[in-house]
Amino acid sequence: MSVVLIHGVPETARLWDGVRRQLGRDDTIALSLPGFGNPRPAGFGATKDEYVDWAVGQLERAVDEAGGPVDLVGHDWGGGHVVRVAIERPDLIRSWATDIAGCLAPDYEWHDFAKVWQTAGAGEQSVAEMISGSVSDRAARFESMGITPAVARDMAEAADETMGRCILALYRSAAQPAMALLGGRLNQAAARAGLVIIPTEDPFTGGEERARWAASKAGAQVALLNGLGHWWMLQDAEAGAEALRAFWSTVDNPNA
User: Fold this and answer.
1) Per-residue three-class SS string for the chain
2) Can you give the pTM of this predicted structure?
3) How distant, in Å, are the alpha carbons of 141, 145, 168 from that of 127?
4) pLDDT digits (tens, 9 = 90+) for 31-76
5) Rounded to the nearest 10 degrees, what angle do helices 48-66 and 161-173 cross at?
6) What are 97-156's pLDDT values in tens digits?
7) Distances from the Cα of 134 to the Cαs of 155, 157, 181, in angstroms?
8) What whole-number distance in Å separates Cα of residue 117 and Cα of residue 123?
């Protein structure tokens, strides 16, 4: 049984290094989304649907290699892709976990960064500023957001015009009511065991009440990470890994 982890925006797969070390397994796979430290395929439009299609292709290969469905974990936009997979391709997964379930509540409003990226002109200016300067300059900006130095450096090296264009296309394809419509399908995610991770200090994903609403609708368990924020896997990788292990133990032994 393999574990597949998907990062978010504007991140890279190195975001998961600490959690992977804490899990102490040799069967974890951290995917690199196209445009985020991974080349953007020709003709790839970077919309939410295209990212899900890409993820499905990666998961089909992972399932073939693992010999069966995988445990799928997503953070930020990766968490959104995870929910889509749980709804549309449950045959590929044994379980799913996401930390942005609150974004699927019917009254969720996109955070301020997203609203800027979804605005013509302002979005282009914002990503131009994000990728400006030297790698060291960009890394320093990411560190100021709470990203650890090694991960910030990797993000800075990947932060180029391709990433900027992908960010804009992805967020613009997901302008409301897109997320609310996905939330209306959450009951379909109950086909597989699910976990809603709730970092209590995350300002971007709708808060605990919305996340618990989504968990209830999807028939998912909840893991509350008290005092941790959006980048919980960098703040306390051990706590994140333990929440995942505890969840997977209930999938292994549903009657325990």
Assistant:
1) CCEEEECCCCCCHHHHHHHHHHHCCCCEEEECCCCCCCCCCCCCCCCHHHHHHHHHHHHHHHHHHHCCCEEEEECCHHHHHHHHHHHHCHHHEEEEEECCHHHHCCCCCCCHHHHHHCCCCHHHHHHHHHCCCCHHHHHHHHHHCCCCHHHHHHHHHHCCHHHHHHHHHHHHHCCCCHHHHHHCCHHHHHHCEEEEEEECCCCCCCHHHHHHHHHHHHCCEEEEECCCCCCHHHHCHHHHHHHHHHHHHHHHCCCC
2) 0.97
3) 13, 16, 8
4) 999 999 999 999 999 999 999 999 999 999 999 999 999 999 999 9
5) 100
6) 999 999 999 999 999 999 999 999 999 999 999 999 999 999 999 999 999 999 999 999
7) 12, 9, 40
8) 4
How many angstroms separate the most distant Cα atoms in the chain? 55
The 10s digit of each residue's pLDDT in 69-79 is 999 999 999 99
- 175 in Cβ contact with 194 (< 8 Å): no
Amino acid at 233: M
Residue 128 CA to its chain's centroid (Å): 23
Only one residue has tokens 């500023």, namely 129
Task: Say if residues 85 and 96 touch (Cβ distance below 8 Å).
Answer: yes
